[in-house]
Amino acid sequence: MKFCSSCGSTVEFRVPPGDALPRHVCPTCSTVHYQNPKIVVGALAEWEDRILLCRRAIEPRLGMWTLPAGFMENEESTAQGAARETLEEACARIEVGPMYTLIDVPAISQVHIIYRARLLDLDFRPGEESLEVALFAEADIPWEQIAFRTIAMTLRHYFDDRRSGNWSFHTGCITAPPPAGGKPVPAG
Amino acid sequence: MKFCSSCGSTVEFRVPPGDALPRHVCPTCSTVHYQNPKIVVGALAEWEDRILLCRRAIEPRLGMWTLPAGFMENEESTAQGAARETLEEACARIEVGPMYTLIDVPAISQVHIIYRARLLDLDFRPGEESLEVALFAEADIPWEQIAFRTIAMTLRHYFDDRRSGNWSFHTGCITAPPPAGGKPVPAG
Ligand SMILES: [Zn+2]
Ligand SMILES: [Zn+2]
User: Fold this and answer.
1) CA within 13 Å, CB half, A60
2) Is the dihedral of CA B14, B15, B20, B23 positive or negative?
3) Mean pLDDT of the region A37-58
4) Same domain, A118 and A169
5) How many domains does chain A have?
6) Phi, psi torsion values for A28, nearest 5 degrees
7) Residue B61 in domain
8) pLDDT at residue B9 above 60?
9) Contact: B38, A36; criterion CB under 8 Å
10) Is the pTM for the entire model greater than 0.90?
11) Which domain holds residue B88?
């Protein structure tokens, strides 16, 4: 941020009076421009013993598999966001169930929230941001090709809970940086 | 938003290519300025059979009681945010427990997350944004003077769960507008 979005002046980066952290502050109109974490919402949608995954048509992690998920929009609920993202990325209609995982990713200032859901019909197809959409049984999950660590964690909880029959809400926090190297690796 | 925060040009409000909603788009540098919901994080901190409330020294709801809570900052986890807000508003040190409530407030594009927590000592006092900080037993909760509906919902869940002994994570969504009228009324 270089310019004030309210008046167009060049902003300064300093600690406002009574605050604890430096912010982008406008010296002309005094607006403090806060920057806050973003929420990613998505759905783990079931059809019998299979779950819906999308193969990404966009960066990051182009070509890798993920649950339908994306940035929550203003004026929607987290559950509405999960249904909207599933419709956008997989052209799939779902009945949203309970919130299932909430995983902090402080290194990139994101919080990822995934709902359990029930796929309402089989008329899904790739949306603009997906190359493929498909149902996967546990044995067929492409574990080495899951796009994001929060999604891999969510899938592991899901299959563990399904096996045990003890469903619960799971929280987590990804603190380690993604592994470096030439191979595409899950991150965030 | 009137000006591009990257280059200072006047922004346009239109649907970018491949998008579904209108955004603030810069015609000069092509930056799309997304606006997303904000997360409020806080803590319900216990000391024996009492819980910690703060009386607000700032608007909105100046003079009313709330759990220590505030906007999550970049590069922290939700749990870290809950501990930070408790330290800032009540100068209180806590051990953060499980996530307890997550309540959507789509009308104001916020998601409120409250953790259960254990107060570590009694050396609390009002921070800059609080007039008073005090421990309340259930019978003494000032129900008519709770600042926000998400906080009142969280407190009701807490005392219900404590009575039943069945602790669980609760989600919710506040869809109705706050009641109108002259009296200060809980909102958000
Ligand atoms: Zn300004
Ligand atoms: Zn620009």
Assistant:
1) 10
2) negative
3) 98
4) yes
5) 2
6) -90, -55
7) yes
8) yes
9) yes
10) yes
11) 38-173
pLDDT given at position A123: 97
Pick the residue of A11, A26, A72, A174 with the most B CBs within 10 A to test the interface with B by mutation: A72
Domain presence at residue A184: no
Cα dihedral: B122, B125, B130, B133 (round 10): 40
Indicate whether B11 pLDDT > 80: yes
CATH number at residue A5: 2.20.70.10
pLDDT at B182: 41
Clarify whether residues B77 and B1 are in a common domain.
no
Residues of A with CB under 8 A from a CB of B: 1-8, 10-11, 18, 20-21, 24, 33-39, 71-80, 88, 98-99, 102, 104, 106-107, 109, 111, 128, 169, 171, 173
Quick one: A24 and A42 in the same domain? no
- Residues A117, A60, single domain; the answer is yes
For residues B77 and B119, membership in a common domain is answered with yes
Distance CA A96, CA A44 (A): 9
B107 token code pair: 């009308």
Distance CA B137, CA B151 (A): 16
Whether the complex's predicted ipTM is more than 0.85 is answered with: yes
A181 domain residue, yes or no: no
pLDDT score of A1 more than 80: yes
Are both A29 and A84 inside the same structural domain? no
Closest CA relative to residue B37, chosen from B128, B117, B102: B102
Determine phi and psi for B163, rounding to 5 degrees.
-65, -45
